[in-house]
Amino acid sequence: MSKPILWIVIPCYNEEQVLPITAPMFLQKITSLTEKGMISDKSRVLFVNDGSRDKTWELICSFAKQDAHFIGISQSRNRGHQNAVLAGLMEARANNCDITISIDCDGQDDINAMDEMVQKYLDGAEVVYGVRSRRDTDTFFKRFTAEGFYHLMNALGADIVFNHADYRLISARVLDSFADYKEVNIFLRGMVPLVGFQSEQVLYERHERLAGESHYPLRKMLALAFDGITSLSNKPIRLITGAGIVVSLISFIGVIWAIVQAAMGSVVAGWASTICIVCFVGGVQLVCLGVIGEYIGKIYMETKARPRYIISERTWAPYERKYHG
Ligand code: UDP
Ligand code: MG
């Protein structure tokens, strides 16, 4: 059997500070895996520039000139981490690679775990999830919110791997099937398990960022979590139905109680409690409407079926005109 061609897919957004440090590490990994005879020497390090505003793309182009293992594509604008990874995976697929490993460019995820990932692929696994063994370098708050998120996702019925982000190996077979998942709202770590096939896990330690700053402040993290939940599970809508039934039952009991009181000659007093209950129910209804609205918004975006990524440049080829219709 010929050796598999590996593409390492690396999303980059405003990463001019960290790329000069991590790019040689990725190249070194490709070289050592090739020397060990585990992968083909046609393997590549693919950087996906996600519409950076700094010198990231210029850096990627200069890497590509220095060494043929480095290649890069650029998105026409910033589309977010998930779309950048997807663009890279689909590019790798279009170029007939046998395996892809997606990883962040900031050195937080241990590059050395790739040896074990590739070995597990050679032993028959089609998906290998990188799982953080410890999160010591994350703040208590990030750890707490992240773990709460994984538990919530699983409770809502989405099958996601605990403490796994987007560091994973995928075989060409899985990638081919994954290409049929056409949704616009993508949450890769929730979608990949849906594809199935034999999967394995590799534990690694998560480090500090080697340079630069995180692009995921609390606001974006919450948005990603909310997106993940609503694009993978319908349970929130079911919960609303459940909450409606519970509130109706309680109010029904209240009515009976008030009638019984009246029949016994005493009047149920208190307009304040009435106002409180009306406001409470009003608030609950607005939240429920918001959740339903979130799903309708998702349906709206899905029906438009807009492109999920637009590649404007490649380091190895000029822009090709697409003809429609
Ligand atoms: N990233 C991206 N597009 C964005 C934001 C981030 O491609 O709009 C990339 C970023 O360059 C990095 C990865 O996604 O390689 C993870 O981002 P970051 O390290 O900022 O997130 P954190 O590790 O703090 O969650
Ligand atoms: Mg990071």
From TrEMBL:
Residue ranges annotated for the Glycosyltransferase 2-like domain, each copy included: 8-176
Keywords carried by this UniProt record: Glycosyltransferase, Membrane, Transferase, Transmembrane, Transmembrane helix
Chain ranges passing through the membrane: 239-259, 271-296
UniProt keyword rRNA processing, yes or no: no
InterPro entries, sorted: Glyco_trans_2-like, Glycosyltransferase_2, Nucleotide-diphossugar_trans
Keyword Glycosyltransferase appears in the UniProt entry: yes
Membrane topology: Multi-pass membrane protein
Descriptive protein name: Glycosyltransferase family 2 protein
Species of provenance: Faecalibacterium hominis (ex Afrizal et al. 2022)
Organism phylogeny: Bacteria, Bacillati, Bacillota, Clostridia, Eubacteriales
